């Protein structure tokens, strides 16, 4: 797989997944994770860097994608891509959650 295909994926409307953090509105769950995440903690710069530079991965849900970036930990920012956000500039995609892989989400029963 080429590095370009890992960096750019297309959604159902044949448009690239946005790499601009301002294209995403954070969910309440995302805000909770940002405020409560400890050991390792996460900050806005980590989230920004994941979206702008992270490897883009698909999930089992066709509208959700993972931005993955190694920054001491392997950080995942999971986003939900919404058709409305491509069609109406007042709408945004959703930043669903953020976490460091191989920490608390590797427990049985958790999935992306």
Would you mind describing this structure in some detail?
With 112 residues, the chain is α+β, with helices and mostly antiparallel strands. The protein has one domain (3-101). Helix content is 26%, strand content 26%. It contains 4 helices and 5 strands. The chain has helices at residues 3-7, 28-36, 44-53, 83-87, and strands at 24-26, 55-58, 64-70, 74-80, 93-100. Strands 1-5-4-3-2 form a 5-stranded mixed beta sheet. Strand 3 (64-70) and strand 4 form a beta hairpin. The longest helix has 10 residues, at 44-53. The chain is globular, with a radius of gyration of 14 Å.
Count of discrete structural domains: 1
Helix/strand/pairing class, anyone?
alpha+beta
Radius of gyration: 14 Å
Kindly state the percentage of residues in helix: 25-40%
Distance between the termini: 22 Å
The helix tally amounts to: 4
- Identify the strand order in the major beta sheet: 1-5-4-3-2
Q: Please identify the oligomeric state.
A: single chain
Strand segment tally: 5
- Give the H and E element order: HEHHEEEHE
Largest sheet: 5 strands, mixed
Shape: globular
Mean pLDDT: 84
Task: Report the uncertain regions.
Answer: 106-112
Strand content: 25-35%
Write the layout of secondary structure elements.
Blueprint: H1 3-7, E1 24-26, H2 28-36, H3 44-53, E2 55-58, E3 64-70, E4 74-80, H4 83-87, E5 93-100
Parallel strand pairs: 1-5
Antiparallel strand pairs: 2-3, 3-4, 4-5
Task: Give structural attributes.
globular, 26% helix, five-stranded mixed beta sheet, alpha+beta, 112 residues, 4 helices
